[in-house]
Design goal:
Blueprint (H helix, E strand, L loop, with lengths): L1 H17 L6 H16 L4 H22 L4 H8 L7 H8 L1 E5 L12 E8 L2 E8 L5 H6 L7 H16 L4 E7 L6 H5 L2 H14 L4 E10 H5 L6 E5 L3 E3 L3 H8 L6 H8 L3 H6 L5 E3 L10 H20 L3 H14 L3
Parallel strand pairs: 3-4, 4-5, 5-6, 5-7, 6-8
Antiparallel strand pairs: 1-2, 2-3
Helix pairs in contact: 1-2, 2-3, 4-12, 5-14, 7-9, 11-12
């Protein structure tokens, strides 16, 4: 039992080191003090009162820092290695998930996951990017950067959803489509364009949520629809800040300036009417509380579905068309 407690204490200590970003140093310092006191004694009343005070201080510091995040800091939060991924949300929001594989042309790109499941009692089709956790899984999932067959798999599943009148729920979290020569050889541009064409006219409600990075055409290929929401600290852009900086200033070190200029944050994009809703994250980001974040996303999906499922299909498609052509006007 003692050995297990030591292992848990060591794990917590390691986690506290790796889960904080550079600008979160003040948060980490207080969190580490709390962990040290918790491991010292959980029964001493004096220590418990100190822990309570430190927890209040932790909350106040976190709130202060996160209320003043720069856009570049938001980019860092969106890329946080412990941020929930599509499979984390599927596990908590939906039930009876039956994953479907392959594009029926080349292979099964595991950077895109999708399948049929239930949202409460409503059958839906869920599709999303999956980055993976450990090194082996990240390599298998290509760090969430789909190849053409990934988008063709998504297209196949979306057409299947249309055939059976299943609402489509898309989760976006990718740095972009895979930029390698293999993708170009197998028609990356055509695969993305084909998805955009399908999503613009598909006869079933489409709800998209940007949960982390919404990068370039890799994100756009599954983010067109009737309602596009973003998590509070996610990003959505035509290119990564590093790529933009390399093009404009010939230096990726200008990425923070590029992020500001590109207005990649949810607040900026809501002002521009590019997105429809911002889903508030738990204090300190979605990675602090998977269950609470999933609950907030579920509320948003249910609200949108209630609106769109009661809408005649002709009216839904007309609304979608108007929404798409109004972007940037």
């Amino acid at each position: 039992m003692a050995d297990n407690q030591n292992i848990d204490a060591n794990k917590n200590s390691t986690d506290s080191i790796k889960k904080y970003l550079d600008f979160e140093k003040p948060i980490q310092e207080v969190a580490d003090k709390i962990l040290a006191l918790q491991s010292a004694s959980s029964e001493n009343p004096d220590i418990n009162s100190q822990i309570v005070k430190l927890e209040e201080e932790l909350s106040a510091i976190t709130k202060k820092i996160y209320n003043k995040l720069s856009i570049w800091q938001i980019v860092q939060v969106a890329r946080h290695p412990e941020r929930p991924h599509t499979l984390d949300y599927i596990k908590r929001i939906f039930s009876d998930f039956d994953e479907l594989h392959g594009d029926r042309q080349f292979g099964d790109d595991q950077s895109i996951v999708g399948g049929i499941c239930y949202l409460d009692q409503t059958p839906v089709m869920v599709i999303g990017h999956e980055k993976g956790r450990d090194t082996e899984e990240k390599l298998r999932r290509n760090f969430g950067m789909p190849q053409p067959e990934g988008y063709r798999k998504a297209k196949r599943l979306m057409k299947l959803a249309e055939q059976f009148s299943l609402p489509i729920i898309n989760f976006i979290d990718t740095a972009g489509a895979y930029p390698g020569i293999e993708g170009e050889e197998r028609g990356q541009n055509e695969a993305i364009a084909s998805n955009l064409a399908l999503l613009s006219e598909i006869k079933t409600p489409v709800i998209a949520i940007v949960t982390g990075e919404g990068g370039s055409g890799g994100a756009l290929a599954i983010s067109v629809g009737d309602h596009l929401s973003m998590l509070e600290y996610s990003t959505y852009s035509v290119a990564s800040p590093e790529a933009c900086a390399s093009i404009i200033w010939r230096s990726s070190e200008k990425a923070p300036e590029a992020a500001e200029a590109m207005k990649v944050s949810s607040k900026e994009l809501l002002k521009l009417n590019i997105i429809d809703e911002i889903i508030k994250e738990p204090l300190g980001g979605a990675h602090r509380d998977y269950d609470l974040m999933s609950s907030e996303i579920k509320k948003s999906i249910l609200k949108s579905l209630k609106q769109f499922q009661s809408m005649p299909m002709k009216e839904l498609l007309k609304r979608r068309y108007s929404r798409i052509i109004s972007i940037g006007s």
